[in-house]
Write a structure and sequence with these properties.
Oligomer: single chain
CATH class of the largest domain: Alpha Beta
Distance between the termini: 18 Å
CATH superfamily of the largest domain: HUPs
Largest sheet: 11 strands, mixed
Strand order of the largest sheet: 3-4-2-1-5-6-11-10-7-8-9
Strand content: 15-25%
Structural class: alpha/beta
Length: 289
């Protein structure tokens, strides 16, 4: 059960789709949304802004002042976005758990060390929902990778367009790997709510019907999940392209996949399939490493 959902907010326009996706998850579960905004000191912001490193004298002073103003603006925007979202959707703002039949929320803002504090909050949550990497808030380009590897929690990447539901059609990209198994297990609360669940695997053998899919569908039935199976023949295109095409044809609201790459190194985790799905999917993507 996802009861405590961490929702990082950038204080930019990308918040809209992330908040809508978070609400789509929280509503059927009466979950709590923990909105979280990472603030930066002007010095950390400067370290993340390459052009500032070339400033000298008064130019450096002006650049640091500008970065401080930008941080204040993003912070104020984060507060405004969360407040407007909660009022528009009837979400109660609560700082402590109380008996409630609906979705609740709160906003926390913290400063350095940014990644360490965000990881701590992610580990203490049931699910993390965030947007596609746009670098509008000076967060590191590998933030999703860091959360995927370091939090031990499932993450959901919202699509660029707001979603009203993530439990209509759910596609599970299946591969016989521990990562895929962990992602499927973590996504069970959503699979149980889904109107339709389709297990999709990509095979290099034309006409293949892997017995593993039927075996998996039989096990999911014990959870009340009536899963269908779909086998796609691997022809020239990468696995990610096949998964995206099938999910789009099925009108998927959510794609569940394991987060894995081509090797054991940290830099490899976002290679190939994982990165392509995050960058190009027109629906939310649920992952666990």
């Amino acid at each position: 059960m996802f009861k405590n959902i961490l929702v990082p907010t950038s204080g930019s326009d990308t918040d809209d789709s992330v908040f809508a996706t978070a609400l789509a998850v929280a509503l059927p579960l009466s979950a709590h949304l923990d909105f979280y905004h990472s603030r930066l000191t002007c010095y950390e912001a400067a370290a993340r802004s390459p052009h500032v490193q070339f400033c000298l004298g008064t130019a450096m002073t002006d650049a640091l002042a500008q970065l401080s103003r930008q941080d204040e603006t993003r912070s104020a925007n984060a507060v405004g976005h969360v407040d407007a979202f909660c009022r528009a959707n009837g979400v109660d703002v609560r700082s402590a758990p109380t008996p409630s039949a609906g979705v609740t929320a709160r906003l926390t803002q913290e400063t350095d060390p940014t990644e360490a504090r965000l990881l701590l909050n992610a580990r203490h949550s049931d699910l993390v929902i965030l947007g596609r990497p746009r670098h509008v808030d000076l967060m590191p380009a590998n933030l999703i990778e860091t959360l995927l590897l370091g939090s031990g929690r499932p993450i959901m990447i919202a699509s660029d367009s707001p979603r009203r539901t993530v439990t209509g059609t759910v596609v599970v990209g299946w591969k016989e790997t521990p990562e895929a198994a962990r992602a499927l297990g973590a996504a069970l609360p959503l699979l149980k709510l889904a109107q339709r669940v389709v297990l999709v695997t990509v095979s290099e053998e034309p006409g293949a019907r892997p017995p593993e899919l039927k075996h998996l569908a039989d096990r999911l039935a014990w959870h009340g999940v009536a899963a269908e199976s779909c086998v796609v023949t691997h022809i020239s295109k990468p696995t990610s392209a096949h998964l995206l095409r099938v999910a789009e044809e099925l009108g998927a609201d959510l794609l569940v996949v394991g987060g894995y790459g081509r090797g054991p190194w940290r830099e490899a985790v976002f290679g190939g399939v994982t990165r392509a799905l995050i960058e190009h999917a027109e629906f939310a993507v649920f992952m666990m490493h």
